[in-house]
Amino acid sequence: MSSTYLYLYLLLLLPPLSSPQSFHWGSCHSPQVQEDFRLDQYLGRWYLIQKMPAFFAPGKCISANYSLSEEGGLQVLTSQSYWDRKWVVEGEAVILDRNQPAKLSLNFFYIAPLSPTWVLSTDYDSYSVVYSCTDVLGVFHLDYGWILSRSASLPPDVLHRGEELLRHLGVDASKMQEVEQDCEEEGSITFSQSGLSMT
């Protein structure tokens, strides 16, 4: 993708940059992830139900769709509703260690660093708890937590278990925000490796 498109996308998201992030001193934790993770069962669409505030996810109706690409790789399409439009970003997911397939690394725009995305717990059919952490200069780290669902909602007890799991890792679950999943959109903007398209 041309860097021009990347700059355009980031420019449009500048207002939410002031939203609180989750900074902590020291290096990232190395949490236990989903045992015997089955990627084939994890494929498909996941709706974001609760999230930590993040500049890259300011919108509503946020979801991620995992699928196998024609080249045999793992494609991920993230979408969110923002400014009355559906914003879709194409990326790829990489498993760096085949012995730990639940530790995915996502790459968007094909020029940005890989972003760790670890599946802590999932039953594949209804919920998924995901954690991400990035070390900054070896001095502090920035972490995020997400609770996702195969549908547009989750029972309160499942949300509570997900929050407790993230809280155990030091994520401030009190900052988690509910993601609205009912949107009306007037068009879409898609960022992919081949460029920008609008409808």
Automatic annotation (TrEMBL):
GO function term, MF aspect, one: lipid binding
Domain Lipocalin/cytosolic fatty-acid binding span(s) in chain numbering: 44-181
PROSITE patterns found in the cross-reference section: LIPOCALIN
Keywords: Disulfide bond, Glycoprotein, Lipid-binding, Pyrrolidone carboxylic acid, Secreted, Signal, Transport
Biological-process GO terms, alphabetical: brain development; lipid metabolic process; lipid transport; response to reactive oxygen species; tissue regeneration
InterPro entries attached to this UniProt entry: ApolipopD, Calycin, Lipocalin_ApoD, Lipocalin_CS, Lipocln_cytosolic_FA-bd_dom
Localization annotation: Secreted
Signal sequence segment: 1-20
Gene Ontology cellular-component annotations: cytoplasm; extracellular region
The family this protein is said to belong to: Belongs to the calycin superfamily. Lipocalin family.
Protein known as: Apolipoprotein D
Organism: Oryzias melastigma
Lineage, highest ranks first: Eukaryota, Metazoa, Chordata, Craniata, Vertebrata
